């Protein structure tokens, strides 16, 4: 009788652990996500570099005006830069936007946006600064400048 009860208890314990283990796996995956760009490349959210995530729209004049500055920042290689279409366009439409405006940094697929650690901004352009650990540490509202980015980095880097 004791063996039957022990067997039953072990089965129940096993059943109880399955959702807990699943939750741990899912939480671990969410803490180290990767995001897909319309180019087809996948990028880990955590990095050895600081990251800028810039929300933009084609109808937003300041957004278009800051693109050359963001291209320059992205090509220097000291920061990662990602773009996000505020309008949640289809991938082909985003590719057209990239070509029309000469965007030289990765723009995330709309499908990748669900896992972002921040919500859709109320103001455009908005640029989020993320630490190498993937934590959102600050936001810039309005046009990005290298001086503004450097000031934010000075404020947050140890």
UniProtKB/TrEMBL annotation:
The chain crosses the membrane at residues 12-29. Pfam families: AhpC-TSA. GO terms for molecular function: antioxidant activity; oxidoreductase activity. InterPro entries: AhpC/TSA, Thioredoxin-like_sf, Thioredoxin_domain, Thioredoxin_ResA/DsbE_sf. Keywords: Membrane, Transmembrane, Transmembrane helix. The keyword Transmembrane applies. Residues 26-158 form the Thioredoxin domain. This is TlpA family protein disulfide reductase. It comes from Marinomonas algarum. The lineage of its organism: Bacteria, Pseudomonadati, Pseudomonadota, Gammaproteobacteria, Oceanospirillales.
């Amino acid at each position: 009788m004791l063996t039957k009860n022990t067997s039953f208890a072990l089965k129940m314990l096993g059943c109880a652990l399955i959702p807990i283990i699943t939750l741990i796996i899912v939480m671990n995956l969410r803490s180290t996500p990767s995001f897909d760009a319309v180019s087809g490349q996948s990028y880990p959210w955590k990095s050895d570099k600081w990251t800028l995530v810039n929300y933009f729209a084609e109808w937003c004049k300041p957004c278009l005006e800051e693109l050359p500055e963001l291209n320059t920042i992205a090509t220097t290689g000291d920061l990662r830069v990602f773009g996000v279409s505020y309008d949640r366009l289809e991938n082909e439409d985003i590719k057209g936007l990239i070509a029309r405006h000469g965007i030289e940094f990765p723009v995330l697929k709309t499908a990748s946006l669900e896992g972002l650690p921040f919500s859709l901004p109320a103001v455009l352009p908005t640029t989020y600064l993320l630490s190498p650990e993937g934590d959102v540490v600050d936001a810039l509202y309005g046009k990005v400048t290298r001086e503004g980015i450097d000031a934010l980095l000075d404020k947050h880097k140890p």
